[in-house]
Design goal:
Blueprint lengths: L1 E4 L7 E5 L4 E13 L9 E12 L4 H7 L1 H17 L3 H20 L1
Antiparallel strand pairs: 1-4, 2-3, 3-4
């Protein structure tokens, strides 16, 4: 999704530990500076923003750094899936139905 802020992201992602044993990874891509319209205004930054909730574990930062592109793609795919089917139960049911159809086609 598109986001706008007065603060420029300083890294391609930020990691925040959550209280429930999970972590939230926020990805920033295609950051562009928008000049201030007025003298007394600060510049703005627009960028593509993706969020991914994952199980927090030792080595997570190393995994993110080593496979950044793959992690980013997962975040994009999940956002897209949420856009077309906002209810995660619907998504799980649709994935199960697709797997069943593929299995039936293989049998026939």
């Amino acid at each position: 999704m598109k986001a706008e802020s007065a603060v420029m992201p300083v890294a391609p992602y930020e990691l925040a530990a959550l209280d429930n044993g999970f972590a939230e990874v926020e990805f920033f891509e295609n950051v562009m500076k928008i000049p201030a319209a007025e003298k007394d205004e600060a510049p703005r930054f627009v960028y593509d923003y993706y969020r991914l909730k994952v199980k927090n574990r030792p080595g997570l930062i190393k995994d993110l750094d080593g496979g950044y592109g793959a992690w980013l793609q997962v975040a994009k795919d999940r956002e897209y899936a949420q856009l077309i089917m906002p209810n995660s139960e619907e998504l799980a049911e649709a994935e199960l139905e697709l797997k069943m159809l593929e299995l039936m086609e293989a049998i026939l």
